[in-house]
Design a protein that fits this description.
This protein is α/β, with parallel strands linked by helices and about 300 residues long. Helices cover about 45% and strands about 10% of the residues. α6 (about 125-145) runs antiparallel to α7 and α9 runs parallel beside α13.
């Protein structure tokens, strides 16, 4: 889960809120709040911070309707407001699981967590839809609860661990389908030493797998010699780096220069993301990466463009 400590708006009315005892509960769900207009109004009223999604990436082609959205829209909490994301199969069904998933992650009884895994397995929703429309916004919401002091570190840590287990379980359960695909594109995922919250890496990995990519590396691969050995021994279309802290920008820049100095890797693209990029994307804009991705949604855009 991204440790986004910029603060931000509290969650939607159908997501958990703070109770007087310091524990996160779940408010009643208003089933009428389902249309695009109602979500836009809700987010604007809550005073969400101006969104940065796509602000520094003019290469992302946006539907004309996207430019009509208020600047207060928070795409991390509401990715469905992006025209491209709304086209994902099963979007509304995935959105409908947000409240139940959040409750299962924060409640003390572990049975809700197990039941959520079974329910998502039965739903047969594509993993990239779940990653963008369910897992990512729920993770962002939990991060904001912590930033706003509406929950404590232990509860967020438990919720993050449970979410990671759900993502990994569903991804592994569908691995046979993925193995049967022709793997024409390969991505290597790694992280900086400061990227301690690895749920984002797991979400991105599951998203790539479901979109037909062969995924190598992950949360256990850091920017060290083992990374360069993998790059030398295998061919990849993309290297994705998750950056945990803003002060790791120089380390990340050095790694990118080292990779790009190898002529045999000249055709491979490099994308960076993670908590630090979400917190301060401008700090990473000039270090040589082909893309600075601030969300799983932007990763999807990148994968689509590379697959074109």
């Amino acid at each position: 889960m991204a440790d986004d400590r910029n603060g931000g708006p509290p969650g939607r009315a159908d997501e958990p809120s703070s109770r007087g005892d310091g524990k996160s509960g779940l408010s009643k769900t208003d089933t009428r709040l389902t249309s695009l207009e109602q979500r836009i109004l809700e987010s604007a009223i809550r005073g969400a911070v101006p969104r940065i999604v796509g602000a520094s990436h003019t290469d992302i082609s946006m539907d004309p309707r996207a430019r009509e959205l208020p600047p207060e829209i928070d795409f991390h909490l509401h990715p469905e407001l992006d025209p491209k994301a709304r086209e994902l199969p099963g979007t509304e069904k995935a959105i409908g699981y947000r409240a139940a998933l959040t409750q299962a992650l924060v409640q003390a009884d572990p049975r809700g967590h197990r039941e959520m895994i079974e329910e998502l397995q039965r739903s047969d929703l594509p993993m990239h839809t779940l990653a963008i429309q369910l897992f990512s916004p729920v993770a962002a919401h939990l991060g904001r609860l912590w930033c706003n002091d509406e929950t404590d570190f232990i509860q967020v840590a438990v919720a993050s661990t449970r979410l990671g287990m759900i993502v990994n379980h569903l991804s592994q359960n569908r691995s046979q389908t993925i193995r049967d695909r022709q793997k024409a594109r390969r991505v290597l995922l790694a992280r900086t030493p400061g990227a301690l919250h690895t749920i984002g890496v797991s979400i991105v990995a599951s998203c790539f797998r479901d979109m037909g990519w062969d995924v190598d590396g992950g949360a256990d691969l850091e920017l060290d010699d083992s990374l360069y050995m993998r790059l030398s021994n295998s061919s990849y279309s993309l290297l994705g780096i998750s950056v945990g802290r803003v002060d790791e920008v120089d380390e990340c820049a050095a790694a990118i220069r080292r990779v790009q100095s190898n002529r045999s890797l000249s055709r491979m693209k490099i994308a960076i993301g993670g908590p630090a990029v979400m917190k301060n994307p401008r700090a990473f804009g000039g270090i040589g990466a082909d893309m600075v991705a601030k969300s799983a949604l932007e990763v999807m855009h990148l994968a689509d463009r590379m697959g074109a």
